[in-house]
Write a structure and sequence with these properties.
The protein has 16 helices and nine strands. It starts with a strand and ends in a 15-residue tail after the last helix. 50% of the residues lie in helices and 9% in strands. The radius of gyration is 29 Å and the shape is elongated. The chain has three domains: 77 residues, Phosphorylase Kinase, domain 1 (2-Layer Sandwich); 188 residues, Transferase(Phosphotransferase) domain 1 (Transferase(Phosphotransferase), domain 1, Orthogonal Bundle); 163 residues, Growth Hormone, Chain: A (Up-down Bundle). Strands 1-2-3-5-4 form a five-stranded antiparallel β-sheet, with helices on one face. A hairpin with a 2-residue loop joins strand 7 and strand 8. The protein is of the alpha+beta class and 490 residues long. Helix 3 runs antiparallel to helix 5, helix 3 runs antiparallel to helix 9 and helix 15 packs across helix 16.
Amino acid sequence: MGLYRLVGLLGEGGQGTVYQGLAPSGEPVAVKLLHARFAGDDRARARFAAELDHARRVAAFCTARVLDADVAGDRPYIVSEFVAGPSLAEVIASGGPVRGSGLERLAIATVTALAAIHEAGVVHRDFKPGNVIMGADGPRVIDFGIARALDATGTMSSVVVGTPAYMAPEQIAGQAVGPAADVFAWACTMAYAANGATPFGQDSIPAVMHRILHADPDLGPLDGALTGPLREILTACLAKDPGRRPSARQILLSLLGAGHPADTLLEEGARAAARSGPAATPPPYDGTRPSDVPPPRTLPPSSASPAAAGPRPPAGRVRGAPPMIVAAVLALGGFTMLLDGTMMGTALPTIWRDLGGSYEGAQWVITAYLPASTMIIPVTGWLAQRFGAKAVWITALVLSLAGSVLCGLAWSLGALIAFRVLQGLGAGMILPLSRILAVEVAGRERLGRAMALIAAAVQVAPIAGPPSREWSSTCCRGGGSPCSASPCCC
């Protein structure tokens, strides 16, 4: 490839393949070659050229230095310095979590690289253990394939890219992202390095993304690998609101100590990273701190507040009432919604007689409910992401019950149909949100029991509808009002 001889495969991604190569001088290099299928794609070529620009902007000490490139030829390629060493993901997989002083040095080295990336006006957008190479002179951050340059506002347009377990809430929500998204990913990476697990779980992608949006991070026990100031820093970095996260420079200042001039902060961080020795084999923790790396400090007052002192629930588990109590409440909501629908169906003759109109018109009482309850379902997921599943579920239940009461007070067939639409909008959100909340509150170990309870309520409600309708008819005055179709009639 040009002047470079390819001698081995290093890896492959969606945009290109990375080979180990040799320069004419014999120096080992890494050659990233754009996939042949993209050679005639102008947009792919533009992205490849942007990757080159971003990599060249960033200080050489924290990434693989670009040596040569040809992005205009038949097969565009980028030649960069070959950084010998495994990725952080490979280090954790083979040797287990990084502990003690090795973890502190890793945090300093990686956040120094992140600060340099941000100062170059670039947001990486895919900071993760697989993109951190543990070189002999310290960690290097690689793969700027989906990085973007910042605009004048310090953010960029919203495009959902990245690795789900390390994506910030604003990335998942499709909002504009900035350096704070990289800070969130850095915190997830450090938690993975310390615990061997990401702070929001490692199961299905939808479950992980839901926890990132709504659940507290799991950083392990208070007396575990992540303790003291570093734990407080990571907790602040994992705030849902990007405005409450510290910047990479603030984090570095906190880790190095307050006595370092701002204009030499990155150089201090780079020296601390270089002094750490081969980052792939951190020394075992002996209970002492290295003398050449200052101990971590707490975050500046302007950053997010520290973590609460109490233990945290496992990833994905929401604090609050016992899971089966919450499941029972969810089941009751589903039962009420289906019971009301069944009772209304059996009340059609009474409605036709008391409110007048044709029997076909009375049937619209049922027909109007069904499209309203199904049309709202696609919007339910967005509402749950925007306002939280619990808040939307409560709103849906109130909406459904309010519609039920108004149906009982309806003065005409048209008003009854309108109130049935209101009922349907609430009812259509209840069941899908109940499933989401069951996963969130019960966790995997109790999910089966929670779903069984909800399913039982859903099965019993249609059976209980007709006798409940007869009972409500006798308890209401005269038994001849549309109120008799509502469970709230008395």
